[in-house]
Design goal:
With 619 residues, this protein is α+β, with helices and mostly antiparallel strands. 44% of the residues lie in helices and 25% in strands. Strands 7-8-9-10-19-16-15-12-13 form a 9-stranded antiparallel β-sheet, covered by helices on one side. Strands 6-5-11-18-17-14 form a 6-stranded antiparallel β-sheet. The chain has a 4-stranded antiparallel β-sheet with strand order 1-2-3-4, with no helix packed on it.
Length: 619
């Protein structure tokens, strides 16, 4: 064998040996990767990864009851998975919170200061109606809901639960209630877990699912004001989904907090280091749900896992009423979940309505009387502008005989030129009398923001919840003098007396004001009179029959005070003096307003430009 052949065989052998070593290493890495994926899959589907016989042989029990469990690498985890949980409780003057050591999770939350409409205890979520679980990769994917934690410490206001690992590390959940507070503080710690959690694992998942029961008298009202909120740090207000409709939202950026909001109570979860991303969803139960549940809320969030030998994440839970001052005291924009309207209406509600409501509440216990005083104050504040508008309407009423003369002078409604002259004559009459046909619209324009502010404030005001007044047992819900026992479309299953009185008063006020308006054959005017006299009262009755009685009561008071104001102002107007002024000004030139002078100047300029264009065209 020559030298070249020997060298060739040596090279071939080196290549084969090198390839064999390379493939062996790659196969080992692939095997480790597949083993890791299998572990994740088994943890994700624990009831399919092990047979009943394997569970029996491991735990020395029988799987005939169907409670087969996953098999974990860590022996202490297997013991924790097989152990039964127990219920423990902590409380303060505001809350009683029960925990299940199975998953170290909240089990139920009872708010002590409040009760349901039927006088039963008020639970934000009833026993077993919540699922709070953390998921982290620690050699295999673990869900804390699958393990029973050891009770390490229990006092009246705090509880500590731990899930130990064979290597000496543990996962710790610490919950504590402050004195006279609705805030539950949570501290999650991964202690001595450096050898268990791989160094490249820097995230963990939080799953929180809650079923919130019904708490109020009216299902539709409660449904309309229940939703899911979420807040990005730095925003002016939180975003929302739901409001009576099932919805979901994918969060791709950092999130400060989210809230499961019932009409008057909320569960707010705030991560002090923010949530990295997540999915939020809410779905609502039908009114005839036998368990009287309102909505199912879900949050699947991802959080950063801090570095270090003792990794700790701080979270806080607000578990209480949607009370503006209480929520605002935490300085996290929680109060923004209360629906107070847009920027203008919200500003008016926040800086006028709420302070006035709180001021009267210090001295008066009857909320019906408080609403009466608030209505009077609002009417007095806007009275200078309403006087001017009502006075204009009264002047128009005094001009009815003169307007009828003008109508008789131009009887042909189909003659466009004649009708134009009639309109010019009427406008000239208004001008000589100092009246404005649009003056009567000003009170409505002024009161619209106030009406909308009240429309948002009363149904969301927890102070009115279960407060009686006259025949009404709950000003935050509808009042009922007749229960039909069956549902009528649009109306519902009851008759609200406040809504009925409000609609009748609205009709009387419309009839009263229209008596002062000039009559005519204008089809638009006839349509507007029909809308004001019939359609608006009927529509408002159907709307208010199912909403807050406080709102219907406020509308009723507002209409009654407006009628009284109109009567007083009309008595102060001397109709004979107005007619004398009109007759004395007949044939005399009227002073022109700045607007009229400007319009005439613009018209002259246009005419001059047209003449110049015609001159250029002739050339």
């Amino acid at each position: 064998m020559d030298k070249n052949s020997v060298i060739g065989f040596v090279l071939i052998a080196a290549i084969l040996i090198g390839f064999s070593v390379y493939e062996s290493g790659r196969a080992r890495k692939q095997s480790e990767y597949l083993a890791q994926q299998d572990s994740i899959a088994r943890a994700s589907m624990p009831f399919e990864s092990s047979s009943a016989d394997e569970v029996d042989s491991l735990f020395g029990g029988s799987a005939s009851d169907g409670a087969s469990r996953a098999v974990y690498k860590d022996s202490l985890l297997n013991l924790a998975a097989a152990s039964e949980g127990e219920i423990v409780a902590i409380e303060n003057s505001r809350l009683r919170v029960e925990f299940n050591t199975r998953g170290a999770q909240p089990y139920s939350v009872r708010v002590k200061d409040y009760y349901n409409y039927d006088s039963t205890d008020l639970y934000l979520f009833r026993p077993g109606q919540a699922d709070y679980s953390l998921s982290v990769y620690a050699g295999e994917y673990l869900h804390t809901r699958d393990f029973t934690f050891q009770l390490a410490e229990l006092t009246d206001s705090s509880v500590v639960m731990r899930l130990p690992f064979s290597g000496g590390g543990y996962i710790e959940q610490r919950y504590s209630l402050g004195e006279d507070s609705y805030m539950l503080d949570n501290s999650l710690s991964f202690v001595g877990m450096d050898n268990v959690i791989p160094g490249n694992v820097n995230m963990y998942d939080l799953d929180f699912n809650v079923t919130i029961p019904r708490m109020e008298k009216g299902y539709k009202n409660e449904l309309q004001y229940s939703k899911l909120d979420y807040y990005y740090d730095g925003d002016k207000k939180p975003e929302e989904i739901g409001r009576g409709r099932s919805a979901s939202k994918r969060i791709e950026s950092s999130l400060d907090w989210f809230a499961f909001q019932q009409q008057f109570f909320s569960v707010i979860v705030h991560a002090k280091d923010q949530f990295a991303s997540g999915d939020l969803s809410v779905s609502f139960f039908p009114e005839d749900d036998p368990a009287r549940n309102l909505m199912a809320c879900s949050a699947k969030m991802r959080l950063d896992l801090p570095d270090g030998p003792s990794r700790t994440v701080e979270t806080e839970f607000y578990l209480g009423p949607n009370h503006f001052q209480t929520l605002r005291s935490y300085d996290n924009k929680y109060e923004k979940i209360i629906p107070l309207g847009g920027w203008l209406v919200g500003w008016f509600t926040r800086y006028a309505i709420i302070p006035m409501f709180n001021f009267f509440s210090r001295f008066i216990s009857s909320f019906g009387l408080i609403i009466l005083l608030m209505t009077l104050v609002i009417k007095i504040v806007v009275s200078p502008l309403t006087y001017k508008s009502y006075a204009s309407s009264a002047k128009m009423s005094a001009l009815r005989p003169e307007i009828e003369k003008i109508n008789a002078r131009y009887p042909h409604a189909d003659n466009q030129q004649e009708q134009l002259k009639k309109q010019q004559a009427i406008m000239n009459l208004y001008k000589r009398a100092g009246a404005s046909p649009m003056g009567g619209c000003l009170p409505m324009l002024l009161t619209l923001p106030i009406l909308w502010a009240m429309f948002r404030f009363f149904p969301a005001s927890i102070e009115l919840r279960q407060q009686p007044f006259l025949w009404c047992d709950d000003l935050s819900s509808y009042d009922s003098i007749v229960d039909f026992g069956f549902r009528i479309p649009l109306l519902g299953d009851h008759l609200s007396l406040f809504a009925l009185l409000m609609a009748v008063t609205m009709w009387v006020y419309a009839k009263f004001t229209m008596a002062s308006q000039p009559s005519g054959n204008d089809p638009n005017a006839v349509s507007m009179r029909f809308m004001s006299l019939w359609m608006m009262p009927i529509m408002m009755f159907f709307i208010c029959n199912n909403i807050s009685a406080a709102l219907s009561y406020y509308y009723l008071l507002s209409q009654l005070i407006s009628i009284a104001q109109t009567l007083i102002i009309r008595k102060s107007i001397d109709k004979d003096a107005i007619l004398r002024k009109v007759r004395e000004s007949e044939g005399k030139p009227m002073p022109k307003s700045k607007w009229q002078i400007k319009m005439e100047q613009m018209q002259k300029m246009q005419e001059q430009q047209m003449r110049e264009q015609q001159r250029k065209q002739r050339k």
